[in-house]
Design brief:
8 helices; 5 strands; 213 residues; alpha/beta; globular; Rossmann fold
Length: 213
């Protein structure tokens, strides 16, 4: 792949979507290559339809393994339709969530097992991994407070409605991934202002890929 693959990860309430929205125009003004933003679950027509099924709060009877398989199916379709073609033409693709989210939410939070979910995703992604992952870290209780304050302005999905213990397990698993993948995943304190977080993300990308600026 000739392009650059960056992912943004973090617990619910970390501000990933807001940060990405502010970060994109800064990158577009400064970088010398095309930039494509996308998200998971979703990012392509079929993958977005699967997203609606997964996150619909009405689907309370969904089995945890069914959930994990649906995330993986959505990811596979997204990879084929958008991720691989974008990277093949040499662009920068920046994605709101990727495999790390499945490892922590389904593997740890749902108790399926991180290795089991990792194996499922290796099959779906053919081993494709991000070049850089920006992990926005926030305490679970703070993230949930943010979600509850803004739930009239955003989708309040099945995962948002989980109890604090679930979100604490997710964050703990994220921190383990950071420790185990220090070359790829960089921790960013998301408790500060959005301007501070966006500037930190921008500087980290510029430092990692200086020839593309």
């Amino acid at each position: 792949m000739e392009g650059i693959f960056i992912t943004i990860e973090g617990p619910d309430g970390a501000g990933k979507t807001s940060v990405l929205r502010e970060l994109l125009p800064r990158l577009e003004d400064a970088m010398t290559i095309d930039i494509v933003a996308t998200r998971e679950p979703g990012g392509s027509r079929i993958a977005e339809e699967i997203r609606e099924l997964i996150l619909n709060p009405a689907n309370t009877e969904m089995d945890v393994r069914t959930e994990a398989l649906l995330y993986t199916a959505s990811r596979r379709q997204h990879l084929v339709e958008k991720i691989k073609p974008t990277l093949a033409r040499g662009a920068l693709l920046i994605c709101d969530r990727f495999v790390d989210s499945s490892l922590v939410y389904q593997g740890a939070g749902r108790g399926i097992g991180i290795q089991e979910v990792a194996e499922m995703n290796r099959f779906a992604t053919e081993g494709i991994e991000p070049d850089l992952t920006l992990y926005l870290d926030i305490e679970a209780s703070v993230g949930l407070e943010r979600i509850n304050r803004s739930k009239e302005e955003r989708q309040f999905d099945r995962l948002d409605q989980e109890k604090l213990e679930f979100h604490e397990q997710v964050r703990a698993a994220y921190l383990t991934l950071v420790e185990d993948n220090q070359e790829r995943i960089i921790l960013i304190d998301a408790a500060g202002s959005i301007e501070e977080v966006v500037t930190t993300c921008f500087n980290l990308i510029k430092e990692r890929f200086p020839t593309r600026f």
